[in-house]
Structure formats: structure tokens, C-alpha cells
Amino acid sequence: MVNSKDNSSTDSENSSGGVPDSKPSLYFEGEKVLAYHGPRIYEAKVQKAELRKNEWRYFVHYLGWNKNWDEWVGADRLMKHTEDNVLKQQALDKKQGMEKSTKSGRSAPAKPKSSADVKLDKEETKSNVPKGKKRKTDSGAEKGNVSVEKLVKIQIPSTLKKQLVDDWEFIMHQNKLVKLPRSPCVDDILTKYLEYRSKKDGMMTDSVGEILNGIRCYFDKALPALLLYKKERQQYHEAVSDNISPSSVYGAEHLLRLFVKLPELIAYAKIDEESLTKLQQKFLDFLKFLQKNQGTFFLSAYDGPKASEGNGKDKES
């Protein structure tokens, strides 16, 4: 994501006329480079190069990724796109046991991030396609990757389905948004569920904790790319910053939207059928918990700011 702090400080920290006397930039605008993102190395392109506080900062676009992942990085995150460095990238891919992408020269991010990241990129790409061509693109993107039969089925209770309909109605027809930050937030709800399971089972199981951490991870990754209506985009930028996770700001309304997308997201995690069945049962139990506490967790009316059309490619209206 774009570092808003870096972006906002550009004007004040750059010199108004030319580059000050300092060390020259190692990379130029438009240069193809290799960039560290987490533990992996990916191909990227330098979009901007700026000198800030006597240090060069680079705005990079990861090749093949959606522009939402563009970000400002320091020189320590970049390498020249040389044959030796490409071999280093490939060796790192092999070391981490990941399959190399023959087309882009990069592999999918390492788990647990790969499942969400790869799917988010695909979903965002699909949202860029004109509606008349979308069906063809969808089938082409999914072909050879995920079949409908392999999608885990998550049965959303009828009262929660109505909640989703009301959610859409508030935003799209009444131009009302959820007031942020929400209380309880997603983190609070996950904690309450963990306490509920611990009390009911007499102990806290590691599997429940892992699943809840996975839900939190998927939510934080998926929210800006998949779970927002276009009218909510401006509010998101105002409420969430680099050091604030969406799960600490948003609540049950947006968490429920995640469960609509989860089957497709999980399909990319390469989970065996037995584990998928258990996961399906856990999700159903969690949804029943949401349903049981629907009056406490969900808003009956949205009293946040008036919805803005905003920009970006989000949930279709």
C-alpha cells in the first residue's frame, strides 16, 4: 500500500529546485529492479525517486501486482536487476520451497500471506475488466487453478444474509456509512469468540486460535481490496493508516462480508479435503456465534458520515 506518511511529506522534505548535494540516487525512475517484500524478492519498477532527509526513497510498483501494493521503500529494499541478483532471487524461492513463476519471474508470497495476496491480485484484476468481458476473463483466470467443486461451502445463516442485504441498502440506497471506529471491532469479536470456545470446551485449543488468527489476517488483507463498496473508500483512507490495522477499526458488518469471499480465498491455500471439512465446521460455528450475538455485534442503523462516491475499484455497486 502507499505509505501516506511518506506521500504527505514529499513537498516539505524535497528541495524546490533540483537535488541537493548528496549521494547520487542508486536507481532511476522507470528502472526495472528487484525488491524485497517480506521474506521474498520480486520484480518491480521504480515509479518515483525522491531525496528525503538526505536519504533516497523510491516509489515502486511490483510487476504483475495490483497498484494498491505500490509503496515507498528505502534503497535497502532494492537490488539491481542483474543476472546474479535474479539467480539470488531464484535461489531464495527454491530455499523456501515455492514454485517459481515462469512468466513474471516471481513466485507467490510465502504462506500465510500467499493465499490472500494472490487472490486479492486476481480479484482486483478482474474488477478492472469491463462488464461485457468479465465473464470470459473470470473463467480464464480460474481455469486450471480452482474448480467450483473445490470451493469450501460456507452456509451463512438466514438472519445474517438479511444483515448483508440491509448493509447494502444502507450504503447504496441511503448513502449511509458505518461510524468508525466500531465497538466491538473485529479484534474484539474474535477475542470474545475465543473466550466463548474456551469456556464451552473447558480449554483453549491451538487450532481455534490459529483459525482466528487466519480470519484476522484475511480480513486485514482483503478489506481494502475486496470488502469495501466504492462509497466507503474515502472513509477507509481517513480511518486506517500504516500503523493501524483494519481489524481494530471495522466491526461485524465488514467481517460478515469476508465470509462471502472466504471460499474463493481459501481455495488458493492448497488445504486437503479433511482439513477443509474441519475448517467449514469451524466457520459455521463462528457464524452461529455472530448470529447469537447479532443484536450486540451489528448496528441496526448506520449513523456514520454520508457516503462518498470516491475512487478505486472496490465491491461492485
Automatic annotation (TrEMBL):
Keywords: Chromatin regulator, Nucleus, Transcription, Transcription regulation. It comes from the Eukaryota. Residues 27-94 form the Chromo domain. GO terms for molecular function: promoter-specific chromatin binding. Residues 90-102, 114-126 have a biased composition (Basic and acidic residues). CDD domains: CBD_MSL3_like. GO terms for cellular component: nucleus. InterPro entries: Chromo-like_dom_sf, Chromo/chromo_shadow_dom, MRG, MRG_C_sf, MRG_dom, MSL3_chromo-like. Residues 1-25, 90-142 are annotated as: Disordered. Pfam families: MRG (PF05712), MSL3_chromo-like (PF22732). Transmembrane segments: none annotated. It is found in: Nucleus. This is Chromo domain-containing protein. It comes from Solanum stoloniferum.
